[in-house]
């Protein structure tokens, strides 16, 4: 059998200097990507921490709706001036285990994946705040990945009370109507501090599809959902699942 020549061996094996050059370029790329990641995390953490003390002035969705509609209704309301049944109703409707998890309700995720009936999202209130305040609307794995990261930061840097306060002020309750303060005036013509238990449950019942549901012309499903929320609001008040934000 003919022996392989040195030329053939050299052709099959890249020169050491080229291999080292490629390895060096790869290490530099990895270091650059890591630095960009760290900078992004630090900037994100700073903004999240800032909004613990400063109310978010707007978000991408509100800006787009203002551009599309010409104007939006929005009024920031401190959670301290609202009747306690308002945040309790929102939590009972959207995330009853809000006080017992750290941003992700894995029981609800498993339930949503295995459900064959009417589908409800498994996103917690913390996840919805991450999406509504810091990200954009729509469904994609990229946005979901950012949502997970911001949810972790929110849970680490904000109190549960602050998370609820921001949520009830940025949630959409009708086309161009954002926050429970604007929603109270829009639907019932009352100041937010005068919202009744039934009105609070109605507002919570139209979430998360306010453009398809109405608090003043409720469908059979919305009326049924209102009753469930009224019961749920009493339940979380009694069993302590509202203690982390009230």
How is this structure best described in words?
The chain has 246 residues and is mainly α. It has 2 domains: 15-54; 55-239, Penicillin binding protein transpeptidase fold. The chain is built from 11 helices and 3 strands; from the N terminus they run αααβαααααββααα. Strands 1-3-2 form a 3-stranded mixed sheet. Strand 2 and strand 3 form a beta hairpin. The radius of gyration is 25 Å and the shape is elongated.
Brief summary of the model shown:
This protein is an all-alpha fold.
**Total strand count, please?**
3
| CATH class annotation of the largest domain | Mainly Alpha
What is the molecular shape?
Answer: elongated
Which sequence of strands runs across the widest sheet?
1-3-2
Helix content: 55-70%
Which residues form runs of ≥5 with pLDDT under 50? none
- Please identify which CATH superfamily of the largest domain we are dealing with: Biosynthetic peptidoglycan transglycosylase-like
The overall pLDDT average reads: 90
Strand percentage lies at under 5%
Query: Within the CATH hierarchy, at the fold level, what is the topology of the largest domain?
Result: Penicillin binding protein transpeptidase fold
Q: How many DSSP H or I helices? A: 11
Sheet of most strands: 3 strands, mixed
Order of helices and strands: HHHEHHHHHEEHHH
CATH architecture of the largest domain: Orthogonal Bundle
User: Cα-atom Rg, whole angstroms?
Assistant: 25 Å
Supply the helix-strand structural class: mainly alpha
Summary tags:
246 residues; mainly alpha; Penicillin binding protein transpeptidase fold; 2 domains; 3-stranded mixed beta sheet; 3% strand
